[in-house]
Amino acid sequence: MAGRKVLIIYAHQEPKSLNGSLKNVAVEELGKQGCSVTVSDLYAMQFEPRATRNDIVGCLHNSEEFNYGVEAREAYKRGDLSDDLIEEQKKVQEADLLIFQFPLYWFSMPAIMKGWMDRVLVEGFAHKFPDCYSSGLLKNKLALFSFTTGGSKEMYTKGGISGDIRYILWPMQHGIMHYCGVKVLAPHICFAPEYVSEENRKEMLLVWAQRLKTLWKEEPINCSPEWYFK
Amino acid sequence: MAGRKVLIIYAHQEPKSLNGSLKNVAVEELGKQGCSVTVSDLYAMQFEPRATRNDIVGCLHNSEEFNYGVEAREAYKRGDLSDDLIEEQKKVQEADLLIFQFPLYWFSMPAIMKGWMDRVLVEGFAHKFPDCYSSGLLKNKLALFSFTTGGSKEMYTKGGISGDIRYILWPMQHGIMHYCGVKVLAPHICFAPEYVSEENRKEMLLVWAQRLKTLWKEEPINCSPEWYFK
Ligand SMILES: Cc1cc2nc3c(=O)[nH]c(=O)nc-3n(C[C@H](O)[C@H](O)[C@H](O)COP(=O)(O)OP(=O)(O)OC[C@H]3O[C@@H](n4cnc5c(N)ncnc54)[C@H](O)[C@@H]3O)c2cc1C
Ligand SMILES: Cc1cc2nc3c(=O)[nH]c(=O)nc-3n(C[C@H](O)[C@H](O)[C@H](O)COP(=O)(O)OP(=O)(O)OC[C@H]3O[C@@H](n4cnc5c(N)ncnc54)[C@H](O)[C@@H]3O)c2cc1C
Ligand SMILES: [Zn+2]
Ligand SMILES: [Zn+2]
């Protein structure tokens, strides 16, 4: 929708990959709608995934014993987080919608994207107990997990060898986004792009573009255990 | 048990943390039993979590389009993975038991440990479709996830706000370890150590030491959907 701001957090090493193409489709389609789109291209940025003392500028709150969560929270209050984190937080703050675009790595996101979650969603910025879940600090924002797999759709069913794909979404959608108050749109999944025809892949990109056209009319999922495990 | 080899993959920034103490208890207790114990102290090693072209020494299999999974598999065959990966794979190969010791970050492991999974468990080394799950290449090994939380035990129950703690274990235990053929021992969880008394924490360390004394007699869990979602 014209005027809406979208942040795409994108984790693929190769621009020519299907993930790269899916990201491009989103940039193009949302751009056409008049949205302003920002991309955090994590590998290109060489984004740091490790949560360390380097994230805190200047002195520590407790230099006797390093507690990452406490130090990040205190540094956020003081405006003393490292520049890369301040930058990402600004992008998140401005965004109406976060799209996470990645290949599934070990039933989850690649480590570089997990590091984005670990480091950017600092206490005080994204949540502040008991301001979590429905009162998380990023409420009024939307998130959408868009990913590709190696496994087939059949493998990721309730009776399949890898279980329902929704089981995998629980930590990411509920544990991270919902915890921060973000409402979650239905995930977008391209199964096994490496093992289908060129034609099928083109179709996958079309389906994504198609969905994006009416994305702003979608209702968030009901992000509770029933959605995942019913 | 005397003679058994244990690899502890440990992810905490602070040696004085409860995770640090839990790791030390395991080193000590297993050492007393005559096990040989190796620790991969990921932050101290500044372990690289990002899956990139740097993991492949020399020329690429396909330099037109970088596919990490394919390149890592081919490099493994040729003996051309980067030294840090070869080193970790040697430790895994020799181990009878892998213990993962970490604080829960966003319903999962910290990014630095996720990177260990992404980069070390290469196709051809840890799995090779259809050699996965019960015929994964690391069969005859055991794994144990030992972690601490911020949330309380009550939050992590079926009716609790964060859902059953077992939901979180599905990607890690089933999606990673079981996929590679590794049998999984019951997880070891210390809930909310920051919010209990010093005395309670000492008790937590004792309980862990106690469990380790009879660990080799334990049966693996039945790592199927029933265990997680029943
Ligand atoms: C460490 C690791 C862990 C993994 N764990 C899991 C797991 O737990 N579960 C699981 O299911 N899978 C897993 N996988 C597999 C992984 O999810 C897939 O390899 C990945 O999702 C494929 O997406 P891609 O973008 O990399 O594909 P690509 O290989 O880039 O895409 C496939 C093809 O699409 C082509 N393409 C790109 N753009 C277009 C276009 N515009 N039109 C037509 N074709 C195009 C590309 O040229 C390519 O040939 C894992 C892989 C790794 C490396
Ligand atoms: C990015 C991020 C994401 C997070 N996500 C989640 C989440 O999704 N879910 C969740 O539940 N939690 C989450 N947390 C909280 C996190 O899991 C806890 O902070 C962590 O598990 C606590 O473990 P620790 O070892 O760091 O504790 P510490 O703070 O090191 O331990 C508590 C106390 O134990 C003391 N201690 C150490 N050794 C001993 C000893 N031998 N005897 C007695 N006392 C000792 C220490 O001195 C310290 O005071 C998150 C935290 C961060 C930073
Ligand atoms: Zn939810
Ligand atoms: Zn399993």
Question: Which descriptors apply to this entry?
Answer:
homodimer, EC 1.10.5.1 (chains A, B), Rossmann fold, 6 strands, binds flavin-adenine dinucleotide, 230 residues, binds zinc ion, alpha/beta
Text of the CATH class of chain A: Alpha Beta
The H-and-E topology of chain A, N to C, reads as EHEHHEHEHEEHH
What is the subunit organization of this protein?
Answer: homodimer
Low-confidence stretches of chain A: none
The CATH homologous superfamily of chain A is called: Flavodoxin domain
How much β-strand is present in the residues of chain A? 5-15%
The helical percent of chain A reads 25-40%
- What count of helical segments of chain A does DSSP give? 7
**Mean pLDDT value of chain A:** 98
Organism (chains A, B): Apteryx owenii
Enzyme class (chains A, B): oxidoreductase
GO molecular function (chains A, B): dihydronicotinamide riboside quinone reductase activity; metal ion binding; NAD(P)H dehydrogenase (quinone) activity
Cofactor (chains A, B): Zn(2+); FAD
What does this entry show, briefly?
The structure is a homodimer of 230-residue chains. With 230 residues, chain A is of the alpha/beta class.
Write a structural description.
Two copies of one chain form a homodimer. Chain A has a single domain (5-229), classed as Flavodoxin domain (Rossmann fold). In chain A, strands 1, 2, 3, 4, 5 and 6 form a six-stranded parallel beta sheet that branches. In chain A, helix 4 (111-120) links the parallel strand 3 and strand 4. Chain A has helices at 18-32, 68-78, 83-94, 111-120, 165-177, 198-213, 225-229; strands spanning 5-10, 36-41, 97-103, 142-148, 183-184, 188-190. Chain A starts with a strand and ends with a helix. The longest helix of chain A is centred in the last third of the chain and has 16 residues, at 198-213. In chain A, 45% of the residues are buried. Chain A is of the alpha/beta class and 230 residues long. Chain A is built from seven helices and six strands. The model of chain A has no long low-confidence stretch (mean pLDDT 98). In chain A, helix 1 packs parallel to helix 6 (198-213). Chain A is globular and about 55 Å long. At the A-B interface, helix 4, helix 5 and helix 7 of A face helix 4, helix 5 and helix 7 of B. One flavin-adenine dinucleotide (FAD) sits between chains A (12, 16-19, 21, 103-107, 148-151, 193-194, 198, 201-202, 205) and B (51, 65, 67-69, 118, 175).
